[in-house]
Amino acid sequence: MKPVRSVRQFALRFAIVFALSVAAAGVVTPVFAAQATPAAPFASDRLSVEVRGQGPDVIFVPGYTSSREVWNETAERLAATHRVHLVQFSGFAGQAWSHGDGPFLAPALDELARYAGTLDKPALIGHSMGGFAGLRLAQQHPDLLSKVMSVDSLPFFGALMGPQATPENLVPIANQTKAMLLAVSPEMFRAQQAQTAVGMTLTEAKRTAIIEDSMKSDPQARATAIAELMVADARADLGKVSVPFWAVYAVDHSGGQGALATAMWTREYAALPDVKLEAVENSRHFIMYDQPERLNALIDAFLASD
To answer: How confident is the model over 219-228, as pLDDT tens digits?
Structure first.
């Protein structure tokens, strides 16, 4: 594997595939639109959920340090025909974190599975880390979900470093990245996020909010989560996915490397039976910001599919 020049360089490169946005604090307290159908009572210190609309259940999961608000416009559009469940993980974008230096990913996914289990085989649409969460639920709980859409997410984010990357050889970098994020000053972190936001969206108007919202995430939660995600590898169990699975990914031609995305997504999802790969041209990581009409059309087709 080609070495990176510094931990900071890797962290910035790795962060391109994750979402950052705004949040509200608190445990799960479903918030209902005027015509919403109440969900079963649910409480968790690992995630919160807002519920809107009525109809077939669909869960939306945001990415690393993101708020549920990244899905807000999509949720408003779908609430007329679906019961939309907007998840947000604790520790991200202003939502309280009460677990110190304890694990992030596995307990959060356990709680997401527990919530999904209160519904009737919902569809799940996840962005970045949220897409990884949907994949893991489909692998570990084959009867839980009806279908999954992964939006600009990979079964092993370490693959961004190249095909030679493995969880084992990324452990030292993950540990260094975690230490760096815990030690960095707020001023330096803000400066890093200003660079990262440019790589996350072509839509300049969204970048200030991305920066501000990332600052609201708990430092320990964001450091632990990214270190765990860097070495989390779901590729060995891709064959266990039995529900329809769509992998939507961004293709950004502005850097002259647009073809690399298709090659990577094709390679990394090759072992997933009947995966439906869908490219979204002229977009960076936040496809819902850069190409909302194209993504909405894909979501409609996904929800209408068998």
So the answer is: 999 999 999 9
